[in-house]
Amino acid sequence: MEYKILAGEDREVYGALEAEIKRQQEGLELIASENYVFPAVQEALGSVFTNKYSEGTPGKRYYAGNQNVDAVENLAVERAKKLFGAEHVNVQPLSGSPANASVYFAFLKPGDKVLGLKLDHGGHLSHGHPVNFSGMLYNFVQYTVDKDTGRIDMDQVREIALREQPKMILAGFSAYSREMEWQKFKDIADEVGAITFADIAHIAGLIAGKQIANPVQIFDVVSTTTHKTLRGPRGAIIMCKEKFAKEIDRAVFPGMQGGPHDNVTAAKAVAFAEALKPEFTEYAKQVIANAKAMADELIGLGFKIISGGTDNHLMVVDLTPQGIVGKDAEAALDKAGISTSRSTIPFDPNPPYNPSGIRLGTPAMTTRGMKEEESRQVARWIASAIAAKDDEAKLVSIREEVKALCAKFPIPSV
Ligand SMILES: *Cc1c(COP(=O)(O)O)cnc(C)c1O
Question: Is the pTM higher than 0.90?
Answer without folding.
Answer: yes
